[in-house]
């Protein structure tokens, strides 16, 4: 059984400038957030805050076995990306997950791929290919 010719013209067509520009800022902001997750120590921090709740920087440092400057850098990245909130209590700084995280980030990621042509959540090109792959009646 022969499939559609590859590459398919719809898949390799030059994108319309508005197609990419309409969500460019959203994509850049989301890429920055995902880059914040691209480090094992930052993922460990998020896991600890998720499982143990609010923690002091010194508790995180002792648990992870990292230097204060290293932890400070990772917490700054996570705060800037919106994953972590901090509050001062006397001389201590306590960290917690930002409300709605990581569900809010995953929803933002999903929203980039739902557009006018893919309102049903699927890719318009994949839908075309699925239609062509229906088995022929014998």
Kindly describe this structure.
The structure is a single chain. With 138 residues, the chain is mostly helical. It has one domain: Orthogonal Bundle (Arc Repressor Mutant, subunit A), CATH 1.10.10. It is 54% helix and 10% strand. It has eight helices and three strands; from the N terminus they run ααααβααββαα. The chain has helices at residues 9-12, 17-21, 24-36, 40-52, 57-64, 68-80, 103-111, 124-132; strands at 55-56, 84-89, 92-97. The chain has a three-stranded antiparallel sheet. β2 and β3 form a beta hairpin. The longest helix has 13 residues, at 24-36. The protein is elongated. Mean pLDDT is 78; it is low at 116-133.
For the terminal residues, how far apart are their CA atoms?
A: 13 Å
Question: Element order, helices and strands?
Answer: HHHHEHHEEHH
pLDDT < 50 stretches: 116-133
Number of strands: 3
The structural class is mainly alpha
Q: Might you state the CATH topology name?
A: Arc Repressor Mutant, subunit A
Helix content: 40-55%
Work out the radius of gyration: 22 Å
- The amount of beta strand, in percent, is 5-15%
**CATH homologous superfamily?**
Winged helix-like DNA-binding domain superfamily/Winged helix DNA-binding domain
Strand order of the largest sheet: 1-3-2
Arithmetic mean pLDDT: 78
Blueprint of the fold:
Layout: H1 9-12, H2 17-21, H3 24-36, H4 40-52, E1 55-56, H5 57-64, H6 68-80, E2 84-89, E3 92-97, H7 103-111, H8 124-132
Antiparallel strand pairs: 1-3, 2-3
């Amino acid at each position: 059984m022969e499939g559609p010719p590859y590459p398919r013209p719809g898949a390799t067509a030059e994108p319309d400038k508005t197609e990419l520009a309409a969500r460019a800022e959203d994509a850049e902001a989301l890429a920055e957030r995902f880059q914040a997750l691209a480090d094992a120590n930052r993922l460990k921090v998020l896991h600890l805050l998720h499982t143990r709740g609010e923690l002091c920087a010194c508790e995180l440092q002792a648990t992870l076995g990292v230097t204060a400057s290293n932890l400070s850098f990772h917490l700054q990245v996570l705060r800037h990306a919106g994953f972590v909130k901090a509050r001062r209590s006397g001389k201590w700084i306590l960290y917690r997950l930002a409300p709605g995280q990581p569900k809010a980030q995953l929803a933002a990621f999903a929203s980039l791929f739902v557009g006018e042509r893919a309102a049903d959540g699927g890719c318009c090109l994949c839908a075309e290919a699925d239609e062509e792959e229906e088995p022929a009646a014998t």
